[in-house]
TrEMBL record:
The keyword Zinc does not apply. InterPro entries: NAD(P)-bd_dom_sf, Sc_DH/Rdtase_CS, SDR_fam. Pfam families: adh_short_C2. The keyword Nucleus does not apply. This is Short-chain dehydrogenase. It comes from Streptomyces sparsogenes DSM 40356. It comes from the Bacteria.
Amino acid sequence: MVTGGASGIGHAVVADLAAHGYRVAVLDREAPADGDADRVRWVVGDVRDPDANDRVVDVALSSFGGLDLFVGNAGVHDGGIGVRDVGGAELAEVTRYVLDVDVVGYLLGARAAAEALADSGGSMVFTLSDAAYLVRGNGAGIAYAAAKHAALGMVRHLAADLAPAVRVNAVAPGGIVTGLRTAGGRQVFADADEITATVRAFNPLGVVLCAEQVAPLYRFLASPAAAGMTGEVLRPDGGLTVR
Ligand code: NAD
C-alpha cells in the first residue's frame, strides 16, 4: 500500500516495487495517467479521509490476499512561509492543511494498515525530508518543518508501539525535482533549473537525486536485509549531516 503514488517519489516507489514482484494498492487524490496496471490497483481519495485509507487496505486484502508493506508518502509543502511572512489567518490555514496531509494522513494510513501488517509481520516506510532535521536553507517554511519533525516523532512512536510485530522506518530525501505542490496548489519546483542549482550548491556531495534513485531505499527497508531496523531513517540528501 502506497499513498501519493501518482507523482514524484511515490510514483517511482510504486514502479520500483512492481518491478520487483510486489503488487501495489495506491491511494492518491489524482488518478494517474497510466491507470491500473498488471500489478497496481488505484484508489482515488484523500489521505485525510480515514475511510479512503481503509479502502486501500481492503483492496490489498481482497485483490492480493494480504498486506506486507505500507509506504506513507503523500505530502504537500508550505511554499517556504516564515512566521512573519503572512497574516495569522493564512498562517493558521496553511499550517493546518500541511499538518493534516503530512502528519494526520500518515497516521490514518498507519492505523488502517497496522492490523494487516501485524498479521503478515510486515513493515511501514514513511517519506520524511531533510526538513525533519534542518530548519533553515532548504526552502521549507515553518509549517513544513513542523510537519516533518512531527512525522519523525510519529515514526519513532509507531516503531515502539508496533514492535515486535511491525517494523517502522523512514526515508528523508533532500531536494528532488517532482510535482510537489504547496497548500495553495503552486508547484514548488516550477523552475527546475534554478532548484537544481540551489540543491547542488547546498549539499556536500553536490548531487541532485531523482525519485528513481531513492525508490530502492524503500524496498530495502521493507526487505529481510533490514530485519534488525526499526525507528530508523535513511537520509539520501547529499550529506547534509556533515555540512
Ligand atoms: P509530488 O507532488 O510529486 O507527489 C505527491 C503525491 O501526493 C501527488 O501524487 C499528490 O496528488 C498526492 N497527494 C497530495 N496530497 C494528497 C492528499 N491529501 N490525498 C491523497 N494524495 C495526495 O511530490 P513529491 O515530492 O513526490 O512528494 C512525496 C513526499 O516526498 C512528500 O511527503 C514530500 O513532503 C516528500 N519529500 C519531497 C522532497 C522533494 O524534494 N521533492 C524532499 C523530501 C521529502
